[in-house]
């Protein structure tokens, strides 16, 4: 019986893309959360942690840095997906938009798929 050979490089790329998409989802939750104050918590090895609320100016700078990271991740995802012939779902494509969009009727069963004939 014929079998489909799995390409380890393609599988590794798929896993990397999935990790980057998770990071983008986390970035989206921070970037596009309106009216929710940002804060930084430090937890020392000994003693109590300190929580500092971020002001509006600092928030703008942090959001700018996060948007730059999101842009870099999107570029890396699209490049890797094209190189290894990995097709993203509509939901995954939507989370990479500015701002992210939701797809009606999407289910947890939606997954990233791999196209055959990946490059060596």
What brief labels describe this structure?
single chain, mainly alpha, 120 residues, elongated
Note down, in words, how this protein is organized.
α1 runs antiparallel to α2. With 120 residues, the chain is mainly alpha-helical. A hairpin with a 7-residue loop joins β1 and β2. The protein is built from 3 helices and 4 strands. The chain has one domain. A two-stranded antiparallel ribbon has the order 1-2. The protein has a two-stranded antiparallel ribbon with strand order 3-4.
Count of extended strands: 4
- Oligomeric nature of the chains: single chain
Helix content: 40-55%
Euclidean distance between termini CA atoms: 24 Å
Mean pLDDT: 84
Count of DSSP H/I helices: 3
Spans where pLDDT lies below 50 across 5 or more residues: 105-120
Instruction: Describe the global form.
Output: elongated
Determine the structural class based on helices, strands and strand pairing.
mainly alpha
CA radius of gyration is 19 Å
| Main beta sheet | 2 strands, antiparallel
Succession of helices and strands: HEEHEHE
Strands across the major sheet, in which order? 1-2
Our count of domains comes out at: 1
Beta-strand residue fraction: 5-15%
């Amino acid at each position: 019986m014929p079998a489909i050979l799995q390409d380890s490089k393609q599988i590794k790329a798929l896993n990397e893309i999935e990790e980057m998409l998770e990071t983008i989802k986390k970035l989206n939750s921070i970037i596009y959360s309106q009216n929710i104050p940002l804060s930084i918590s430090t937890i020392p090895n000994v003693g109590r942690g300190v929580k500092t609320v971020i002001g509006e100016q600092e928030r703008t700078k942090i959001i700018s840095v996060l948007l730059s990271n999101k842009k870099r991740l999107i570029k890396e995802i699209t490049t890797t997906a094209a190189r290894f012939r990995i097709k993203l779902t509509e939901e995954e494509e939507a989370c990479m938009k500015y701002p992210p969009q939701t797809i009606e009727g999407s289910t947890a069963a939606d997954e990233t798929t791999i196209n055959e004939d990946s490059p060596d």
